[in-house]
Specification:
Blueprint (H helix, E strand, L loop, with lengths): L11 H4 L2 E5 L4 E5 L28 H6 L11
Antiparallel strand pairs: 1-2
Amino acid sequence: MVAAPPRFREYADLGASVECYRDQRFFELESLGPLTDLEPGAALHHREVWTLIGPDERPLDQVLASLPEQPAEMVD
């Protein structure tokens, strides 16, 4: 059986495939897979591919090194 492509499948949390959370210390980005029924002992793999893009032409390690150790107070 071949599953439908993820964009045509049902997702939990009001159909979200991505959820975000933030507080004063960090920002979390969580990817979610589509709802899937598994037989006992079956496995499912959820693959993520990330690309980090800096705000300018500097290498990303230089951009990260220039960030403050403690983030500024966040305003909601």
